[in-house]
């Protein structure tokens, strides 16, 4: 048996996220492995909880019997060490860190945990170094992927796709600047992701697109899930991700699961997610962060280079066959949970 503590909006279709998808797949995977999974969605503006949200979490933990394994999403756990501390000795707390918050609160919260799970080797190493955590307390359970049909792609490679919540750290503004530099080439961009997290940023992006004369070529699809998201991937030629920071980049492996090459910034765990095909080739292009000139150059190489497109597509198809699945992710977490039992 395991109790899983999640943000209250985990199933909100208006705000899909990689972290929520990961949590949902892990809960299902643990159940498939024979665990009795008790989910607790805690309402609140995590990671900025008010007193009521903190009280809900405190009440939940107080009601669990001694020795219970509890898997807590880091978005909740990492900001409330004072709520975790009274239960650190009697509950088996495991914190799942999707994105380090990097502060004194997170340090104290992880100190309360019997074990920590991260979604990438990059995050594991960062937490170990920053908080001096014992190596055997921090584990990596990288996101899996669902098998998917290969994207057909077009000969010219002009269909670009960005799948990311529209917020500053995802770098849509950098992408627009880069696309303006290659406006003389044929391309179209579909941006898939929630538009409600930072309305001021979204409004600024729309002005930026209009000012650059790109309104007819950049489409804002909003959040897509299920078959609609699968269709967006299937229709694309290249996934583009201009993030200023990523702990892993699940959209990278989701693209690769369809044999879709990737152009991304080399930040955080993105190089890890992109990986290499068994023959050693990268299934995409990496550029430095906050560098629209480098991003534009990579886009130009893709759009002008049929041989490059062919090579990257071949590497993406080869990488597709080597990706881990979601049962492998859940198996790692089950092993961690077994390890903290009394």
Description:
By secondary structure, the protein is of the alpha/beta class. β7 (159-163), α7 (172-181) and β8 form a beta-alpha-beta unit. α1 (18-32) crosses α14 and α7 crosses α12 (292-304). It has two domains: 2-144 and 324-340, Glycogen Phosphorylase B (Rossmann fold, 3-Layer(aba) Sandwich), CATH 3.40.50.2000; 159-320, Rossmann fold. It is built from 14 helices and twelve strands.
CATH architecture annotation of the largest domain: 3-Layer(aba) Sandwich
Q: What fraction of the residues are assigned to beta strands by DSSP? A: 15-25%
Number of E-type strands: 12
CATH class of the largest domain: Alpha Beta
Strand order of the largest sheet: 2-1-3-4-5-6
Rg from Cα:
21 Å
- Count of spatially separate domains: 2
So how many helices? 14
Average pLDDT score: 95
Give the H and E element order: EHEHEHHEHEHEEHEHEHEHEHEHHH
Main features:
12 strands; six-stranded parallel β-sheet; alpha/beta; 342 residues; 41% helix; 2 domains; Rossmann fold
């Amino acid at each position: 048996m395991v109790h899983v503590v999640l943000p209250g909006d985990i199933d909100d279709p208006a705000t899909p996220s990689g972290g929520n998808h990961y949590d949902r797949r892990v809960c299902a995977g643990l159940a498939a492995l024979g665990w009795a999974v008790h989910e607790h969605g805690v309402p609140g503006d995590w990671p900025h909880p008010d007193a009521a949200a903190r009280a809900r979490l405190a009440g939940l933990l107080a009601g669990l019997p001694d020795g219970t394994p509890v898997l807590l999403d880091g978005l909740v756990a990492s900001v409330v060490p004072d709520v975790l501390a009274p239960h650190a000795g009697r509950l088996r707390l495991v914190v799942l860190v999707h994105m380090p918050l990097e502060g004194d609160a997170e340090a104290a919260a992880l100190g309360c945990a019997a074990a920590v799970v991260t979604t990438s080797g990059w995050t594991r190493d960062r937490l170990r170094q920053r908080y001096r955590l014992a190596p055997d307390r921090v584990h990596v359970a990288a996101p899996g992927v669902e098998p998917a049909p290969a994207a057909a792609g077009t000969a010219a490679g002009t269909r670009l796709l960005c799948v990311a919540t529209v917020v500053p750290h995802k770098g849509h503004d950098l992408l627009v600047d880069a696309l303006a530099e290659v406006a003389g080439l044929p391309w179209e961009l579909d941006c898939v992701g929630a538009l409600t997290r930072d309305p001021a940023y979204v409004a600024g992006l729309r002005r930026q697109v209009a000012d650059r004369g790109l309104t007819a070529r950049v489409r804002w699809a909003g959040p897509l899930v299920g078959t609609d998201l699968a269709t967006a991937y299937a229709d694309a030629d290249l996934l583009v991700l201009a993030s200023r920071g990523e702990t892993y980049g699940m959209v990278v492996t989701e693209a690769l699961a369809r044999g879709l090459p990737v152009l991304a910034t080399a930040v955080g765990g993105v190089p890890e997610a992109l990986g290499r095909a068994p023959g050693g080739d990268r299934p995409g292009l990496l550029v430095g962060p906050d560098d629209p000139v480098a991003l534009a150059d990579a886009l130009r190489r893709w759009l002008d280079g049929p041989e490059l497109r062919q090579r990257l597509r071949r590497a993406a198809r080869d990488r597709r066959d080597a990706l881990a699945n979601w049962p492998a992710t859940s198996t790692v977490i089950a092993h961690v949970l077994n390890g903290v039992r009394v």
